[in-house]
Design goal:
The chain is of the alpha/beta class. Helices cover 25% and strands 27% of the residues.
């Protein structure tokens, strides 16, 4: 009997299933939550198998039955901005009433330490905290956890944004959400899920790795170690072996090893910190990560594609917006390793539904954690306002390299996203431009703004070939548009 119990414990813990004596919901579905407006809204949970579950909110009444494993799910029809609402979830044996529910815009906010960096550790913490009185901004802070298998829940709750609740929340997420709230005048839900020092691979679901040919081997490896069917099969075979050993008076064999993924393994953080809120309806995601992948060059581009594709898959949203931060200058002492990550991040703009906030002007080469998170959050919000919310009167990006043309002993560089014009941010001569001839030896260049272009030259180079801008980990370039958004580093050689 003891052997059978042990086996059941192993199997059911792996599957995150248990016998439920009452109606249960994941914590992301709770009082104070924000539901995504104008979107089909999944609501799900557990109950006794076969029980009818009824979900009621804002005049909608939806019914379903719990499956054999106890799971149930319904889809609410799209809701308009509003609230507060009450949601009632009822079954024959239990009833749950959720209160203070709003309908607005919901975003996932994830990455490593610069996304985790709290409001209390960013610029002007005392003032920012005391002014954080926004009851229509709601915060859901997912605790740190790595897991070998997708978790169904996490120990978190929705909270109103207040001076009491904001100090330890992600600063970038908060400033992003606050800017959206100020501009849109609608409720904002922020799901914070970040862990300092982590790479991109642990945040990526298996389906994401499958979507990128160069990374399918990663998916195959994860499946070999974490295939639930195989794990359960091993547990069942072990239980049978134990029974035989007991019957025959032999030594009981050791139980099978359960694979364990940590916060450094592919899928480990997706399983523990994103899966618990899947498939909650969200508008999009903001992402601040890359420092731990410096040195990988364009391989990071493939990994970003995998992350984006994977999250769009698990959230059942092919249009899920994904806006990310081009990481700041910092003394890595790794040559062009950081610029090569910038190149990979810039290339990711070719993925539909993405945007990149450039922050070369707010970094600190002596500190990998710039304290100015206000501008970072705002710049991410500008992308969302322009691309998701139809704001036509804003400039959402700094200048991005478009093309070059050789004109005698000069090179003319053209940009996208010049706004109302190009400027030197500090009023000094343009900095951090370099130019090369056919020998590919780069020299500091003279750079002048001409209309929407920059013309670069060097006295020692009569036949120029290529241009680099900001191509160094210690740069602080001053080219921006008049709206104050800095130009992204680029190089024309080896693009």
């Amino acid at each position: 009997m003891q052997t059978k119990n042990i086996t059941l414990i192993i199997i059911f813990s792996l599957l995150s299933l248990s016998a439920h004596a009452r109606l249960e919901l994941p914590r992301v579905i709770s009082s104070n939550m924000v539901l995504q407006r104008d979107s089909v809204t999944p609501i799900w949970g557990q109950d006794d198998p076969g029980n009818q579950v009824t979900v009621s909110i804002a005049g909608q009444v939806k019914k379903t039955k719990a499956l054999e494993n106890g799971k149930w799910a319904i889809n609410l029809e799209p809701l308009k901005v509003g609230g507060p609402y009450e949601m009632k979830i009822a079954s024959p044996d239990d009833e749950i009433i959720l209160s203070n529910i709003l309908v607005g815009e919901v975003w996932v906010c994830s990455g490593q330490s610069n996304m985790e960096w709290s409001v209390k550790a960013s610029n002007n913490p005392a003032e920012e905290i005391s002014n954080a009185k926004f009851p229509n901004i709601r915060l859901f802070h997912v605790p740190k956890k790595a897991s070998s298998f997708p978790e169904s829940d996490c120990n978190a709750s929705w909270k109103e944004c207040s001076p009491e609740n904001i100090p330890n929340f992600s600063a970038v997420a908060y400033y992003f959400g606050r800017h959206l709230h100020d501009e849109l005048k609608v409720p904002i839900g922020l799901i914070g899920s970040a862990w300092g020092g982590t790479r991109i691979e642990p945040w990526t679901p298996v389906s994401g790795f499958d979507s990128v040919p160069s990374l399918r081997g990663v998916a195959d490896k994860v499946r070999r170690y974490t295939n639930l069917d195989q794990v359960v099969d091993r547990a069942q075979r072990w239980a049978e072996a134990v029974k035989r050993a007991v019957d025959e008076g032999r030594r009981i064999p050791s139980p099978p090893q359960i694979p364990k993924l940590n916060h450094g393994n592919p899928t480990g953080l997706y399983n523990g910190m994103i899966a618990p809120v899947v498939p909650f309806s969200v508008k999009g995601a903001i992402w601040y990560q890359g420092e731990s992948n410096v040195g990988e060059g364009m391989a990071y581009h493939d990994k970003m594609k995998a992350l984006i594709s994977g999250w769009r898959d698990v959230f059942n949203n092919d249009d899920l917006s994904f806006y990310y931060v081009q990481i700041a200058p910092y003394r890595y002492n790794k040559g062009e390793a950081l610029p090569d990550i910038w190149k990979a991040q810039t290339a990711t703009l070719n993925v539909p539904g993405t945007g990149m906030a450039v922050i070369t002007d707010v970094g600190n080469v002596q500190d990998i954690h710039p304290r100015n998170k206000q501008d970072v959050g705002k710049r991410l919000a500008l992308w969302a306002l322009a691309k998701d919310y139809g704001k036509k009167d804003i400039t959402f990006s700094g200048p991005l390299y478009k093309s070059m043309a050789i004109e005698g002993n000069k090179i003319r560089v053209s940009f996208n996203n010049t706004g109302t014009g190009l400027v030197s941010r500090d009023g000094n001569e343009l900095s951090d431009f370099m130019i090369s001839g056919s020998d590919n030896k780069f020299l500091p260049a003279n750079a002048l703004i001409e209309g929407q272009d920059v013309v670069v030259s060097a006295d020692a180079i009569s036949s120029p070939k290529n241009v680099r801008f900001g191509w160094d980990e210690l740069v602080n370039p001053n080219l921006s548009n008049k709206e104050g958004l800095p130009a992204s580093p680029f190089k024309t050689d080896g693009l």
